[in-house]
Every structure is written in structure tokens, then in C-alpha cells.
Amino acid sequence: MNSKLRVLFLCTGNSARSQMAEALLRHADSEHFESYSAGTDPMPINPIALNALEHAGVSVDGLYSKSLSDLEGSEFDVVITLCDKAAQECKRLPQNSEVLAWSFEDPATSKDSRAFEHTLQAIHDRIKLFVLVKTKR
Questions:
Q1: pTM for the whole thing?
Q2: For 34, 58, 74, 84, which has the most beta carbons within 10 A of its beta carbon?
Q3: Cβ atoms within 10 Å, residue 59
Q4: What is the pLDDT of residues 26-49, one digit of tens each?
């Protein structure tokens, strides 16, 4: 792999799941991947998401909420949606990217007191597999 694979994580608010995924991929393998995130309807980053990342030892430097339109004109090798609503929005995007749909429950709406930790772990497990598959080619 000569150049880095550009990966965009997309969810509705860009406030938790996609931010976690962006930070986790950067943490897992910044040698082979450039990691980005955006929301179809962005909101401020949930501080509990940032706390969960920091507690796991993952840097939150450079994370900020972005709209999909902020990235217009950018090209990505892989677009990964993290919720069903974003997956629907992706159908309107130019299809020059590989699109993967990973659906994770929004931890902000969960009644589970450890929802953010559980979501972080679930996304981390998926990213480890993604990195393994993409770097073995």
C-alpha cells in the first residue's frame, strides 16, 4: 500500500460514534489510514464520548464536529456509516468510494449507564477487523 487509505466515518450528529471511530482508527493505524468523520446533521461533540476515548487512552486532539458539506470535494476510499439514517443519506453521495454500513445504537439515547464505553468497545472491535482486512491486501 503506497498511499494511505482515506476513510470517512459518517453518522447523523458527528457527536459520538463517528468521532470515536475517527479517533480509534487514527490510534490503531495512522501509518496506513487517514481518518475523518462528519455528520449529516452535525451537533456539538458529546463530552461523554470524549471522556470515554480519553479513559481508553485514545487521543482526542483535533476532533471537532463537521458537516458532510464541509468535506465536499474531498475524495475517500472508504465511507463507513455508523447509523441507519446516515446510510440512507449515503445513497445520495457520489459512489466512487467503497461504502460500508456499520450500525451502532446511539449511546446518547441509551438507558445503559455504560453505553458510551460499550459503543467505544464495539467500534474498536470492528475497526481492528477492518484494519486487519485492509492491510492484508
A1: 0.91
A2: 58
A3: 11
A4: 999 999 999 999 998 899 999 999
